[in-house]
Task: inverse folding
């Protein structure tokens, strides 16, 4: 057995008063006791004997069913004894009241296979999951309800369908619990709720819903280190999520409960978003953290052990709006295609000394064979405009598509604009991308990434037809932005040069609803190219059915289908330039490939590669870019506050002398603790007069003097996306690298708000990380950055 002395050493510094106030764990975890698996004072107990959980996350929805056993064997060979499994509610109930557990969605079979490979299962059924998945796993039809605050709340509009979902989970998976001979040891209630809210009654209501669903194994909740105490309740065992500094995470747990120490998500890498550099997770620090946790008699779950691929249209979106790539490789120790390498071997070596007596590790299975496919042409097209359904919705003003019972896809809007001078067409909101044409001629694009909801319309000598083609990419999966209603939101107005604003009414709306599976509409292909958005068709022949990677770097932006199956989204801005095509989805003989390209390919050909391309950025292939003439305008503006942050990684709140009104906010870094010329921020929030964080769904970056965009994603948006594990970092490679302080980050708040303070989360990690700000100034005003 692993000695317990290092655990006590690890937790030195925890408040003695906190320790004395702790209840026995049996009194804290008030789920029904399991005769086989229980939570003891310092250990998880399986049949009365200590069990140190070495777990890894794998999403069965992101791995072809035919490969589940292969990946589970690989997880076992790495040194893990458990697998963590998310259930995504919308994956199983895309249309309200219609549940689907067949084929790729067969969660019960996944659990059976895990048990067959000698792995325990930790189940995470939501209702909210996050996981870079469409709307964090919540079903889109919830958004038919009005309001922007009912999700993840005690309101019956959310709780009633959540209870129904959890009852369905209990019906399907209740028999897989360890209490009934299955592999499920524990069940998670909600997910990282402390990042979203602090309603303890909500957590209690969901806990009761899980119990009512028939689960009698121990229940738990997870939160990042700095939010562990925020939503902890005695009725639920708490675990901490982090990607570094396990000492701080375990200390936070020891301050709220007496029980075994566990990291619910240890980040082995990170996910990618379109238009940002590919993320990687280091090996050396991770191995050290794994050893630290195991030496302390702690347990953990690697997020991710195997990332896989977000096939179909299930990819989520980081806040404020940065869509996630189809590849969910995550730089995990087991790659997108199930390959292993140095990280796998390092993790395996780190865990081997901590195996239980008599436990041995099997050898990993051989990788799946890979093949190449010679380039083939897609020389038939079906224009998107001709592929829209005949059914037309008529409305005075466009509303969110959920109100029309449209789930996601392509939406075409049409309205007549009277003759007159040039002017500006503006929508209240556009989710997500839109191409605007006047009498068939492209005049501009709208892009929610940059809150660009306006285009200039030329003068017209006669009434003109305005057509807006809108593409829903993904719903935000994190933060209050999960209330992400899609489509063109009215009112839509036109303001002629020198004239009065008028509202455009009497719209015609047609849509291709891709639904749950990316269903293709009826298509009439003809040989030849298309100048506008179109479906393209081609085929390849093969006698082998091995894995390959479709090279989409010659295309623009859109979706791919193989033999009628929706493979996923692509976007040549990168960093991902390929699409993983599993061998079981390839037919011997002829294979049909259909591509929807919204911007037009540079070359209408596709080849199958033997290796993926995950790290090639081409920002020049993006849509219109925001104006580059934005300038900092701090001249004559006095700081609202100046001071110095404390060293270390702890979150710090700062209160101003008096609240003030502001539309924009600037944080100015004057120097760093390590004396180097860099600044970094993991998260920056603003506080109201009551010390609560100000809602930030409308925030954007107005200006930043420097950001790392080559060797890693150090973009400024990382400072306001709610994720402590990534960060804004000033440039240390490429043009402008190493520019001296001061460094400035300006946030546009979207509207005038009262600001009474700020919350600063330093870059996480060991004390030697760069960029931790020492002295700083804060500015607030109407316009601190903008067009001259």
Result:
């Amino acid at each position: 057995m692993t000695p317990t002395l290092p655990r006590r050493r690890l937790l030195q510094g925890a408040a003695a008063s906190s320790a004395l106030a702790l209840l026995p764990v049996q009194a804290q975890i008030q789920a029904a006791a399991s005769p086989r698996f229980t939570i003891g004072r310092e250990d998880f107990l399986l049949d009365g004997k200590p069990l140190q959980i070495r777990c890894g996350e794998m999403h069965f929805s992101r791995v072809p069913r035919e490969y589940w056993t292969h990946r589970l064997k690989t997880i076992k060979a790495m040194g893990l004894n458990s697998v963590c499994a998310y259930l995504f509610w919308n994956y199983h109930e895309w249309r309200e009241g219609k549940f689907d557990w067949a084929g790729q969605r067969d969660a019960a079979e996944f659990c059976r296979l895990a048990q067959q490979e000698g792995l325990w299962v930790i189940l995470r059924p939501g209702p909210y999951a996050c996981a870079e998945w469409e709307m964090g796993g919540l079903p889109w039809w919830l958004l038919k309800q009005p309001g922007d605050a009912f999700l993840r709340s005690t309101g019956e509009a959310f709780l009633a369908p959540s209870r129904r979902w959890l009852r369905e989970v209990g019906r399907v998976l209740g028999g897989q619990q360890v209490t009934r001979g299955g592999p499920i040891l524990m069940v998670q209630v909600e997910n990282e709720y402390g990042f979203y809210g602090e309603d303890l009654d909500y957590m209690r209501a969901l806990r009761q819903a899980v119990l009512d669903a028939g689960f009698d194994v121990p229940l738990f909740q997870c939160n990042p280190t700095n939010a562990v105490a925020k939503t902890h309740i005695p009725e639920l065992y708490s675990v901490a999520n982090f990607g570094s500094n396990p000492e701080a995470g375990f200390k936070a747990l020891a301050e709220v409960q007496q029980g075994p120490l566990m990291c619910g998500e240890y980040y082995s890498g990170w996910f990618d978003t379109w238009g940002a550099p590919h993320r990687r997770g280091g090996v050396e620090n991770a191995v050290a953290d794994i050893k630290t946790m195991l030496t302390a008699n702690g347990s953990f779950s690697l997020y991710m052990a195997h990332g896989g691929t977000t096939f179909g249209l299930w990819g989520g979106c980081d806040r404020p709006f940065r869509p996630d790539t189809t590849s969910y490789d995550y730089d995990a120790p087991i790659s997108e295609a199930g390959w292993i390498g140095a990280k796998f071997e390092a993790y395996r070596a780190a865990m081997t000394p901590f195996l239980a007596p008599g436990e041995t590790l099997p050898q990993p299975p051989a990788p799946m064979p890979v093949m190449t496919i010679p380039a083939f042409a897609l020389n038939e097209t079906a224009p998107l405009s001709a592929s829209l359904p005949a059914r037309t919705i008529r409305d005075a003003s466009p509303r969110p598509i959920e109100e029309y019972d449209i789930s996601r896809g392509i939406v075409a809007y049409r309205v007549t604009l009277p003759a007159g001078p040039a002017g500006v067409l503006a929508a209240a909101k556009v989710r997500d991308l839109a191409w605007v044409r006047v009498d068939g001629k492209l005049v501009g694009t709208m892009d929610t990434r940059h809150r660009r909801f306006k285009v200039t319309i030329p003068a017209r000598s006669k009434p003109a037809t305005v057509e807006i083609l809108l593409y829903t990419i993904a719903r935000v999966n994190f933060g209050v932005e999960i209330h992400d209603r899609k489509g063109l939101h009215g009112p839509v107005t036109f303001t002629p040069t020198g004239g009065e604003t008028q509202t455009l009414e009497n719209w015609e709306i047609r849509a291709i609803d891709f639904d749950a599976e990316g269903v293709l509409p009826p298509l009439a292909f003809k040989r030849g190219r298309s100048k506008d958005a179109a479906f393209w068709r081609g085929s390849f022949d093969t006698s082998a059915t091995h894995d390959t990677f479709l090279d989409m770097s010659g295309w623009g932006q859109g979706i791919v289908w193989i033999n009628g199956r929706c493979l996923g989204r692509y976007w040549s801005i990168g960093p991902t330039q390929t699409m993983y095509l599993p061998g079981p989805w390839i037919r011997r003989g002829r294979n049909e490939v259909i591509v929807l390209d919204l911007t037009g390919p540079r070359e209408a050909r596709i080849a199958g590669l033997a290796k993926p391309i995950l790290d090639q950025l081409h920002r020049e292939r993006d849509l219109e870019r925001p104006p580059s003439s934005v300038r900092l305008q701090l001249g004559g503006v006095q700081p609202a506050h100046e001071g110095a942050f404390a060293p270390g990684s702890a979150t710090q709140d700062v209160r101003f002398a008096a609240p003030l009104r502001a539309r924009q906010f600037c944080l100015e870094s004057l120097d760093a603790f390590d004396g180097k010329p860099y600044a970094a921020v993991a998260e920056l929030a603003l506080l109201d007069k009551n010390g609560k964080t100000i809602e930030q769904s409308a925030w954007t970056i107005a200006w930043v003097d420097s950001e790392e965009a080559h060797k890693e994603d150090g973009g400024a948006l990382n400072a306001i996306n709610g994720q402590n594990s990534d960060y804004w970092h000033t440039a240390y490679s490429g043009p402008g690298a190493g520019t001296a302080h001061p460094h400035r980050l300006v946030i546009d708040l979207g509207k005038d708000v009262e600001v009474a303070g700020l919350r600063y989360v330093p870059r996480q990690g060991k004390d030697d990380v760069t960029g931790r700000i020492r002295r700083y100034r804060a500015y607030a005003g109407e316009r601190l950055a903008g067009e001259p």
About this structure: The chain is about 15% helix and 30% strand.
